[in-house]
User: Which sequence fits this backbone?
């Protein structure tokens, strides 16, 4: 009897010891999960904190780029872009301690400058260019649109509707042109009705509200196929060539060849010659030194173009498109704006942060 009692006690003790061991194991597992959860949350919080810290620094760098742009624009207005080489050397020597002088001088001569600089452990990329390097959409005439449509592969049979609809959109009356559209006869009959502006566009994107102007036509893309299509139509897009600012003249020191080809009497060969003349060209046969155009007369004389083109072009700018990118690690923040310089003051006409 005593032996049986002893065995039972030993068995009971082993069972209790086993239960205790299981409890300890469960406690260890639960504590491990809790510690692991805390560790994971701490890691996530650390990553989030790091992200916000980098983002804030990238924001600060991008914003500092806008301040640099303000400085360069103001400085460039005090520099004579048509100075002689001797004057440039003398002025550069006098400004030897001014780290922004060369960029300001280039901006004064070219109306454009690109800067990439390490700053505060990150990188600043700054691009300033004349807003006049684009055509003012509100100043375009019928023949301007025709050159743009031809250049961007818009079929000729679509031109009348697009041109008339655009003209109806910006004119002040409510009378539709032959192929155009006004509020009462078109826009107010749509599923989501709206009225024609009957005034100038506020942005290039507003073209998408005008009859016939699809996203593919404006920004480039493939026209949706219909049963009659033999092959799809691929549009090159023209939004990048347009602006809503300026008097309509094109800055020949910064406009690209596509924009230049929208001017009267400027084909691909002439546009290429304009770019080579201002930016320089080198080959085994000849070398053209980079030299921006000083004024309209200098432009027509150097390229032997008709003087009538002078009314469409300019070499000066008071309105600039500024793109400032701040990068910290793998995070990039950008600020895009259109700034106007007038009477020693800079005002912002448009501002966007990404």
Assistant:
């Amino acid at each position: 009897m005593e032996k049986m009692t002893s065995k039972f006690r030993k068995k009971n003790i082993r069972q209790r010891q086993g239960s205790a061991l299981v409890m300890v194991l469960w406690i260890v597992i639960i504590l491990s999960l809790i510690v692991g959860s805390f560790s994971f949350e701490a890691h996530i919080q650390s990553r989030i904190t790091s992200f916000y810290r980098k983002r804030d620094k990238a924001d600060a760098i991008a914003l500092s780029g806008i301040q640099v742009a303000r400085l360069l624009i103001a400085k460039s207005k005090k520099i004579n872009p048509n100075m002689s080489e001797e004057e440039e050397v003398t002025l550069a020597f006098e400004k030897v301690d001014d780290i922004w002088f060369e960029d300001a001088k280039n901006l004064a001569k070219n109306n454009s400058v690109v800067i990439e600089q390490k700053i505060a452990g990150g990188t600043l990329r700054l691009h300033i260019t004349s807003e006049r390097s684009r055509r003012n959409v509100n100043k375009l005439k019928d023949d301007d649109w025709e050159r743009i449509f031809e250049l961007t592969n818009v079929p000729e049979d679509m031109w009348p509707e697009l041109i008339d609809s655009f003209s109806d959109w910006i004119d002040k009356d409510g009378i539709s042109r032959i192929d155009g559209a006004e509020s009462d006869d078109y826009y107010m009959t749509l599923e989501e009705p709206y009225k024609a502006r009957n005034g100038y566009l506020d942005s290039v994107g507003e073209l998408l509200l005008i009859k016939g102007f699809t996203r593919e036509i404006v920004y480039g893309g493939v026209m949706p196929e219909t049963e009659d299509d033999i092959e799809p139509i691929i549009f090159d897009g023209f939004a990048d060539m347009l602006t809503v600012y300026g008097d309509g003249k094109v800055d020949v020191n910064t406009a690209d060849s596509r924009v230049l080809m929208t001017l009267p009497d400027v084909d691909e060969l002439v546009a290429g010659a304009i770019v080579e003349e201002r930016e320089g060209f080198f080959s085994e046969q000849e070398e053209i030194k980079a030299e921006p155009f000083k004024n309209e007369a200098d432009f027509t004389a150097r390229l032997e173009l008709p003087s009538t083109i002078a009314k469409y072009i300019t070499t000066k700018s008071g309105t600039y498109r500024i793109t400032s990118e701040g990068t910290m690690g793998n995070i990039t923040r950008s600020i895009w704006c259109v700034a106007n310089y007038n009477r020693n003051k800079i005002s912002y006409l448009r501002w966007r942060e990404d």
User: Anything to note?
Assistant: The chain has a mean pLDDT of 86.
